[in-house]
Specification:
The complex is a heterotrimer. Chain A is an all-alpha fold. Chain A has helices at 13-23, 96-99, 104-113, 118-121, 126-129, 134-162, 170-196, 206-216, 221-245, 250-280, 285-295, 297-303, 306-317, 322-350, 355-358, 361-366. By secondary structure, chain B is an all-alpha fold. In chain B, helix 3 (135-162) packs parallel to helix 5 (207-217). Classes of the chains: A mainly alpha, B mainly alpha, C alpha/beta. The interface between A and B is large, with 152 and 150 residues.
Chain lengths: 372, 380, 145
């Protein structure tokens, strides 16, 4: 993989000569007349500061990025003058409709503005001041073990793709870096929560991980994005809302308050990307339907994983007594219906309105029976 | 590239029936409750700092006890969890601790999370209204910013692409790398925003520097990438930021460079601590790293011919294009170039590679350059 | 001064509190969403549209009907549920777990989230901490029902 310079520059007299000329005061100023657009950007709203949206101007803007980025394979910043022999970085994602979403810049700006710090923004000591019952704590530790697995995969997806995406999509790539940090922060919060409770971590989930790996290892970015940014993030958003709604402690509620914000951004990118992709590439509709037919079984794998389902029942019910379990399974049945309903809504809104009619999941959900 | 799960869950009748049954009856398997994992009692060592990864450095969950070769986990299971049969292989490339670990990794990450800033709101952009720079200063500043946007975007790609290759047991390193990717994205953003507020826009790309940046990205191992990125490149850029802060034409620029400097110093810190760690724990790697440094320094030296950057720097340092400005600019730029090299070798020395000076051609260039500068009355 | 709920005065009072607590909302980050609040009473709901921008409530107005296409989402609920929430906030200084927006609306059984586009719905969660803090400011005003 290594890339080596084309020669030993310390032996190259022309390098020393070029440097010497400049350091003797003979400036060439070849860059001084760069043929680039002259602009002076301003913050449209000083309270918001200077955003990427404010700089969506002419050749520097993202609106004018063409669908096919053909003449840009180096790391030149969009709008600069390209000169000389620039390296080919081997980008494999060069079509705007493969990565773009109309909300990308907004989400990037939002992710910075809404940052948080797990170490200090969560009232950790509350958990020691008001410890949970043993069974409830074990259930929480198991849930947070499961959520760490999901976040590891959420972190890997943008990392895996970012270097393969053309540098001209710089706002998109910046958003993906923000996603990496979001996932890392959630992983951190979940790990800290699981361990601070004292019962240690639980068991990893083979069923969940199998499905997650299938999603993570998708062949193409739009496919992987719909799986990780829409399906997984949408699923997690409902998990976070569920835990917040039944939060056994202030710590859990605080963590989930932040987690749902981060997941909300991720899922909105997933929806926006799929929408943009299908709008600009209508011929991909069938392929995407087929991809979802093949891979959405992983959502069933997540939902049905005992490492999620059982601790969620216990957490929602408050314990292992029969009445508690009954309460918990009714709430968990509602959770599953909500996950699937919102997943189908997003897929439809993105441009696949008939998908729920061909998916096998709704019929499976109809079989859920949770008598109170 | 695609992977297919060992089970298609919509076709697995037993799996579906089982969870539907659980929901219907409340009967649970609960085998996960018997997971044999360690019970620990973490405490916040310093409540003002909150609950840190260091506070969780206990037993099987801690990072101290990660073995040199991670053999037990190749899945997405978090370190210390019970790992059942059937988990997939995450295909990590790096499962050797000394290949990526740095002393204090966890602290660098915690610092990164707590010191995140926002290029949109933390820079007083409004103060640029009404600021008129001369054409020469404006263009030189834009040219410097153009170069920095090239640097910073590749600095996001390089650590990021390694992240999924690292064994998931190295949670803290992965976390640090994620924070670095975000730091670099913010740097690309702030430099782009500054270039586009000068009135001149972006300027000209730098082909020689781009070649160096490609070298950073395409390394054979994480350690080699780290030494080239964190130590050589970011070390050089840190010196550049310090000088740029010194010669900034406005307070806004000073603020920008102060903020990026904090992040860059953290990345260099990680690089130094990793370099120390790998030299101490994986001595066979020393020659490989020397060889990679040979290449990194060669490309670093080629940067001397990137006159689009040097000239812009001279103009900013001297304050203009008049003869006396250029003379002053050359003096400061010479000091800057020598300082970059001096600090590079100091870092290697401190990390346990004092012999580098003997082997390095760049060091010979540094000595020559320093002697010439002193002869011209320029002192470091 | 006591302010009646529901009314534009109530939301204006929260807006003033939001401005007075700017540092807290700055820390939580940008909030860019326009959403509806619908308070049902005897079959004739009173409807409000709240428009947030950057760190502020930019505008609030009462409308005869909320057009779901013109807002990101609408929080609908009977006046009894809203009252219970506001009283709970007053009692505790902030909503407890059982009375925050997320819990009350989670299954759509007490409050209900109505939306035209899931993208708009997700904004409730993207800005949840700010929205909850906004309603929690009810603890700082006297409200009558």
């Amino acid at each position: 993989m290594a890339f080596y310079a084309d020669k030993d520059y310390t032996e190259d007299a022309s390098i020393l000569e070029a440097a010497n000329q400049v350091m003797q005061g003979n400036l060439s100023l070849h860059w001084y007349a760069a043929k680039t657009e002259r602009i002076k950007g301003h913050a449209s709203n000083p309270r918001r500061g200077l955003t990427y949206q404010d700089l969506d101007i002419g050749s520097y803007g993202y609106t004018n990025i063409p669908e096919n980025v053909r003449n840009s394979q180096s790391m030149v910043s969009r709008g600069s003058e390209k000169v000389g022999k620039l390296p080919d970085m081997g980008y494999v994602v060069n079509r705007k409709s493969d990565v773009w979403s109309d909300n990308v810049t907004q989400l990037y700006e939002e992710s910075k503005a809404r940052r948080w710090v797990p170490a200090t923004d969560i009232p950790w000591t509350e958990l020691h001041a008001h410890p949970l019952g043993h069974e409830l704590e074990i259930a929480c530790a198991q849930l947070y073990t499961f959520l760490q697995e999901c976040q590891l995969v959420s972190m890997d997806f943008p990392s895996k793709w970012v270097a393969l995406i053309n540098q001209d999509f710089l706002e998109q790539k910046s958003w993906m870096c923000a996603q990496m940090l979001d996932a890392s922060r959630l992983l951190e919060a979940f790990r800290k929560r699981a361990l601070y409770g004292g019962t240690g971590l639980g068991r990893a989930s083979a069923t969940a991980e199998q499905g997650l790996k299938e999603w993570l290892w998708a062949d193409k970015f739009p496919q992987g994005s719909v799986s990780i940014n829409l399906s997984l993030a949408g699923f997690l958003l409902v998990v976070y809302r569920q835990i917040a709604a039944f939060a056994p402690s202030k710590v859990d509620r605080a963590i989930m308050g932040f987690a749902m914000q981060d997941a909300g951004r991720q899922v909105d990118y997933g929806l926006g990307q799929l929408r943009y992709h299908l709008k600009h590439r209508p011929l991909e509709v069938d392929a995407m339907e087929e991809y979802l037919d093949d891979t959405e079984h992983a959502l069933v794998g997540l939902i049905g994983s005992p490492e999620l389902l059982e601790p969620m029942i216990i957490m929602c019910g408050g314990g292992l007594e029969k009445a508690q379990v009954d309460k918990g399974r009714v709430a968990t049945a509602k959770f599953i219906r909500l996950v699937v309903r919102e997943y189908m809504e997003r897929i439809a809104a993105a441009g696949l309105p008939g998908h729920s009619g061909r998916s096998r999941i709704p019929a499976m959900i109809d079989r859920i029976s949770a008598p109170a | 590239m695609s992977y297919l799960s060992t089970t298609n869950f919509t076709e697995d009748k037993n799996f579906i029936d089982k969870w539907l049954y659980t929901i219907r009856t409340g009967e649970m398997d609960l085998s996960w409750m018997k997971a044999v994992t360690e019970k620990i009692s973490p405490e916040e060592a310093n409540p003002r700092r909150g609950l840190t990864y260091r506070d969780l450095n206990l037993g099987s969950y801690g990072y101290t006890d990660i073995p040199e070769k991670v053999r037990a986990n190749r899945s997405y299971a978090p370190r210390g969890a019970a790992i059942p049969d059937g988990v997939p292989d995450a295909q990590p490339w790096v499962s050797r601790k000394s290949e990526l670990w740095a002393f204090n990794t966890e602290s660098y990450y915690e610092e990164a999370v707590s010191r995140q800033w926002n290029a949109t709101t933390d820079i007083p952009w409004e103060r640029l209204e009404g600021v008129e720079m001369s054409e020469v200063t404006g263009k030189a500043l834009s040219q410097l910013m153009t170069f920095l946007t090239e640097v910073e975007m590749i600095a996001t790609d390089t650590p990021a692409m390694w992240l999924p290759r690292l064994n998931p047991d190295f949670i803290e390193v992965r976390a640090f790398i994620a924070s670095q990717a975000m730091d670099e994205a913010r740097h690309a953003e702030v430099f782009r925003k500054r270039a586009l507020t000068t009135g001149w826009g972006l300027m000209q790309a730098s082909p020689i520097n781009e070649m160096a940046l490609k070298h950073l990205r395409d390394a054979d191992s994480f350690s080699e990438m780290s030494v080239a990125l964190h130590l050589v490149a970011e070390g050089n850029i840190l010196t550049l930021f310090r000088f740029s802060e010194y010669l900034s034409p406005t307070d806004v620029d000073k603020k920008i460079f102060r903020l990026v400097m904090q992040d860059e110093a953290r990345h260099v810190g990680y690089g130094m601590q990793h370099f120390k760690y790998v030299l101490e724990h994986f001595p066979e790697k020393r020659e490989v790293l020397h060889a990679h440094l040979d290449e990194a320094e060669n490309i670093s030296f080629a940067g001397a011919a990137a006159t689009e950057l040097t000239e812009a720097f001279i103009i900013l340092a001297g304050g203009g294009l008049k003869k006396e400005n250029i003379e002053q600019g050359i003096k400061i730029t010479t000091q800057f170039n020598l300082k970059q090299m001096q600090e590079h070798f100091e870092r290697l020395d401190k990390c346990g590679m004092p012999e580098r000076k003997e082997r390095s051609k760049l060091y010979k260039m540094y000595e020559m350059g320093r002697a010439a500068a002193e002869a011209a009355g320029i002192k470091l | 001064m006591t302010i009646s709920f529901p009314s534009t005065e109530y939301f204006e009072a929260l807006k003033a509190q939001m401005a007075a607590n700017e540092e807290k909302f700055r820390r939580l980050g940008f909030i860019d969403t326009k959403f509806g609040v619908s308070v049902g009473a005897n079959g004739t709901p009173r409807n409000f549209v709240l428009e947030f921008e950057v760190f502020d409530l930019k505008d609030v107005r009462e409308v005869p009907k909320i057009d779901p296409k013109q807002v990101d989402f609408t929080i609908e609920g009977d006046s009894r549920v809203w009252r219970e929430m506001i009283e709970n906030i007053k009692r505790n200084g902030e909503a407890d777990s059982a009375h925050d927006i997320n819990t009350l609306a989670h299954f759509g059984e007490r409050l209900k989230i109505v939306y035209d586009d899931p993208d708009g719905h997700d904004k409730l969660y993207r800005f949840m901490e700010s929205i909850q803090e906004f309603f929690d400011l009810s603890s700082k005003i006297e409200v009558s029902f």
